[in-house]
Design goal:
The protein contains 22 helices and no strands. By secondary structure, the protein is mainly alpha-helical.
């Protein structure tokens, strides 16, 4: 598959580069480049939102998790779906009505300039890891498809992804997301159908082990993921960036609701693939490989090729969104500029930094994303939610609100990066895994205290 895959890969990427070049002429302003003109229809927002949330973590990562812990691995995506649905009911229209272009700008409108800078810094720093995580997954997919670890090929592909994102901005990302989502869904659905309807094997064992909790996934895991993962889908920068490109409030609300419902169906399909591996493939057979990669090796060649490009599409559709959003936030909210050239330069710099991190192999997709989310959610979700709900109704004590965000984020940073230090000073190991959750509780309490009654 080596030469054939490489040729098709570059043809595939050439289509996206062409889309970027064609959109170059359509980009007339910063709004066009950063939020696709704020004119996207419900269908366009739905497609790009789903393409954004269905990435490496929700395909490769979820199947590995399910293979490890069993059916409860479904909760990552289920909480994501719940987060989207709750967003639709409670805040989608309110957020879109503010006219913000980015999540930090939303914080500025709601609380003030200091809040904008703080939220922007958290996102930009954390999301380098998120982008790198997607690229790590992309590299593992390329290695699997070509049979060799070519860093040159990986770097070239990464730069092409950065290139079409840099050229066309959000306009190009919205268009490429549509193509990528179709390939993702086709690949995953056909793969699951083949495993259960044609290959069969121990499918009956899968049906006999459908459980929501087990010894590998306990109630505290459930609680932590509900807030940490569900929180990102409820009020995360990439998710809300799709709200900002919608043409109006109702479009934003409808897109979030339908996306959540589709994600529930997708979560069952990808979980069933992981369960098939769990009950049909031994640990020795799998070795150090990824569960989903192993499955691809069992598929007929046409289906295997479709699945590989489906996974590649999942990774690219999340990567380009992360890059353009983080770059826009850096320029608009940290530098205080609305300059397309500056965003393009930032896209290039962030893309190169993330590529270097991925080349160095610093972590896998789930660890990198979980680390980023564990900082973001305690520092941002509840403070922003309180501010959104109080907008034009209650006044916020700005310094108290900022304290809520800072303390919440510090709990997340402590739990993510300073576990060894905390153990050395006597913090119980059982407590370390819940520091992000504790941080969310702290940020919620202080955020509520920031509201003037």
């Amino acid at each position: 598959m080596d030469i054939f895959f490489t040729v098709v890969l570059f043809l595939y990427l050439a289509v996206f580069m062409l889309i970027g070049i064609l959109d170059l002429r359509r980009v007339k302003s910063f709004t066009d480049y950063s939020v696709a003109g704020k004119s996207q229809s419900a269908f366009a927002v739905l497609m790009t939102l789903l393409a954004t949330v269905i990435g490496a973590s929700t395909t490769i990562g979820i199947t590995d998790t399910v293979n490890s812990v069993g059916f409860p691995g479904i909760w990552w995506l289920m909480f994501g779906a719940i987060g989207l649905i709750l967003q639709s009911f409670f805040i989608s229209e309110k957020v879109r009505a503010t006219g913000a272009d980015t999540l930090p700008e939303l914080a500025k409108i709601l609380v003030g300039g200091a809040a904008e800078k703080l939220i922007a810094a958290v996102i930009v720093i954390s999301w380098i890891g998120v982008i790198a995580g997607q690229l790590v997954a992309m590299n593992s997919l390329i290695v699997f498809a070509t049979g060799k670890n070519s860093k040159l090929l990986f770097v070239i592909v990464s730069l092409i992804v950065v290139g079409y994102t840099l050229i066309g901005g959000q306009m190009s990302v919205v268009k490429t997301d549509k193509i990528q989502l179709i390939i993702i869904l086709l690949g995953v659905v056909i793969c699951c159908g083949y495993l259960y309807l044609i290959k069969g094997d121990a499918s009956h064992e899968v049906l006999g082990n459908i459980e929501l909790l087990n010894e590998n996934y306990r109630p505290m895991n459930l609680l932590t993921q509900f807030f940490v993962i569900g929180g990102v889908y409820f009020l995360g920068p990439d998710i809300m960036s799709r709200n900002f490109i919608a043409k109006d409030e109702k479009t934003a609300k409808r897109s979030a609701l339908i996306s959540g419902m589709v994600l529930i169906a997708f979560s069952f399909i990808i979980t069933l693939i992981g369960m098939w591996v769990r009950y049909n493939v031994t640990a020795d057979e799998l070795g150090d490989g990824k569960a989903l990669m192993y499955v691809i090796g069992l598929l007929p060649k046409p289906v295997a090729i479709l699945m590989i490009f489906g996974l590649l599409s999942a990774i690219l559709s999340s990567t380009d969104t992360c890059i353009i959003n983080a770059s826009t936030i850096f320029v608009k909210d940290i530098l205080g500029k609305e300059n397309v050239s500056a965003v393009r330069i930032t896209v290039a710099v962030m893309g190169v930094l993330a590529t270097l991190l991925a080349v160095m192999g610093r972590g896998d997709i789930m660890s990198l994303l979980t680390g980023a989310y564990s900082i973001y959610t305690p520092g941002v979700i509840f403070p922003l939610l309180v501010a959104v709900l109080c907008y034009k109704k209650k006044e916020i004590r700005k310094w108290v609100w900022l304290l809520a965000s800072v303390l919440g984020g510090l709990f997340g940073i402590a739990g993510t990066y300073f576990g060894t230090v905390l153990l050395a000073v006597g913090i119980p190991s059982t407590l370390l895994g819940y520091l992000s959750l504790i941080g969310m509780g702290v940020s919620l309490l202080i955020s509520l205290l920031s509201v003037k009654m």
